[in-house]
Structures are given as C-alpha cells and as structure tokens.
Amino acid sequence: MHIVLMEPLGITEERLAGLSAQLTELGHSFRAYDSFTTDAEELKERARGAEILMIANHPLPDAVIRELPALQFISVAFVGIDHVGVQACRERNIGISNTGGYCDDAVAELAVGLALDCLRNISRGNEAVQRGGGKAGLQGHELAGRTVGIVGTGAIGCRTAELFKAFRCRLIGYSRTQRQEAQALGIRYCGLNELMAEADIISVHTPLTPETRGLIGREQIGLMKEGAILINTARGPVVDTEALAEALRAGRICAGTDVYEADPPLPEGHPLLGTPGLVCTPHVGFDTRESIDRRAGMAFENVLAWLAGRPIRSML
Questions:
Q1: Spatial distance between the Cα atoms of 19 and 25, rounded to a whole number of angstroms
Q2: At what angle do helices 104-120 and 122-130 cross, to 10 degrees?
Q3: What is the pLDDT of residues 53-77, one digit of tens each?
C-alpha cells in the first residue's frame, strides 16, 4: 500500500520515523510532508497514487477525494471529521477513522481553567499587576457549589464533568443521547433551555453538525442567569457569536472561548475583539505535548488496524 501523510503531526522527526517504520517494515511505502496546504491542486499532487491518506485538521474536500481513484482509507488525526469530504468518501466507500479520545483531558482541563479564570479574574489580575496596580475590583467567586451545565455528554463532556465534580459542583446535562456514564457521574439530564436557565456555568462539548450549528443562540443566551458563565471549547459556530458578544457587552454574562468560526488571528472588527467579560485562547484546547504525541500514535494505529482488516475508531 502507498501511504501518504499530508501534513505534519507536530511530533519530532525521530518519533515520526519510529511510527512510520511500523508500516515500511510490513512492506508498505510511506511519504510524509512537513508543511500543510489548503490548495486543492497541491493536495491532489501530494495524494496522487495514495491508497491511504493521513491528515490532521486541515481540509481534504470532496473535490480532491474524487480525483484520487486509488484512495481506500483516511486516518484523521483529529476528533472531528467536518473538514473531510465525507460525501465523496461515502460515494466511493472510503473508510475514515479518527483519533477520538486523544485530547479528552487536554480540552476538559482548559474548560475548567477558563471557568476558573472567569470566576477568579486570573487574567485580569495578571494585567493589573503588570500595570503596577493591585486587587481593586478583582474580588472573585468560588467554583465549589456551582451548578455546571454540560452541553454534549460525550467523552470530553463527561471528563469535564468529572473535573467539575471534583470541585463539588452540581451537574446537569443536555445531549442528544443520554449516557449511563454521565448519569453515573451525577449528571441530571434536562432540556437545553432548562439547562441554560439553571446553570451557573455552561460548558459546551458538542461536535459541529447541521443540527448543532447555532445550538446556543440568542434565545438560549437570553435565558442565562445574570453573571452566569458560558465556556466553549467545542466548535465556534455552535454558539451564536453576535448574540454572545451582545450579552457580554451588556454585562449580563461572562464567557471563556477557545474556538471561533475560523482560528485566530481574528479579523479586524470581529464581534469578540475587545469585548468585556471574555477570556479567549487561540484554539489550543487540544494542543498539549502529551495529547499531540498521543494523537500521532493513534493515527498510525488506525492505519495498522485497517491494514489488518480490523478497523478501529471508524467514522464511516
């Protein structure tokens, strides 16, 4: 099999060599690119003749996949596959596996960190000290005893809930599917509007699908308590950016976000730039040294499993 890694995975050359040796020792050919591209013609050229492709989080659209007659399988070193031409894969019966689970701890920890920053004014405190100021106006709130609403109780949502539980928070949840694991953590399921109105902290952990785009809209944000906190480490378009910015500018709520319609730098005039009551990170929730190394190992594991006829983490 001819296998092509279309973009770097963020690991060392030594680590890549060790992982790819598992394939070449079995007689397969392997080629890796050390840069990413979004140019369709360049993608086609890189993937020419490939039977297996490995990608991370950059687009591999339908139009490219349809020009790759030998392609049989794609290993996606990412949780979501909304950047992959799924329709073309379905037309050709091309398998897709992801690396779901590689960043559960990383994203959950950032979600809790953003909530703590909003509650304890950590970023604002740093700015005050750096300016030569003190603690005036920076009295915060405790996380213990808060009601936390988890929107999306998949693996990351449940891990986030587990961490909030360690702070003695009360847990409620909304999800398309009610999971026993979530209920075992103490999550009480309810409707989305009820969750938005009841929770002191809302942490969003849904994938981006046609159904979840704009899930947290103007109506839902309007239901939030005065001073409640909205945390989004899922996908930017799950939350209505304009509605969120309006609520922040009005001083009704606070928020922490790691995700946007497109990754930062944000364009001039973006609604969230300069907005009060907001803590931002530049889409780093998944990005720890541990998680990136884990992700690479899982991506190669996907390929080896598919070659052995025992696909794992299959998305199609």
A1: 11
A2: 60
A3: 999 999 999 999 999 999 999 999 9
Inform me whether the pLDDT recorded for 87 exceeds 90.
yes
Query: Could you tell me the domains of the chain?
Result: 2-102+289-307 (3.40.50.720), 104-280 (3.40.50.720)
Task: Give the separation between CA 62 and CA 115, rounded to whole angstroms.
Answer: 38
* C-alpha span between 74 and 306 (Å, rounded): 10
Q: Write down the number of H helices and E strands in the chain.
A: 12, 12
Q: Which residue has the tokens 């920890």?
A: 109
| Nearest-angstrom CA–CA distance, 29 and 21 | 10
Q: What band does 80 get if pLDDT is binned at 50, 70 and 90? A: confident
Q: What is the reported pLDDT for 222?
A: 98
Residue 306 has which token pair? 């598919």
Q: Is 237 helix (H, G, I), strand (E, B) or coil?
A: helix
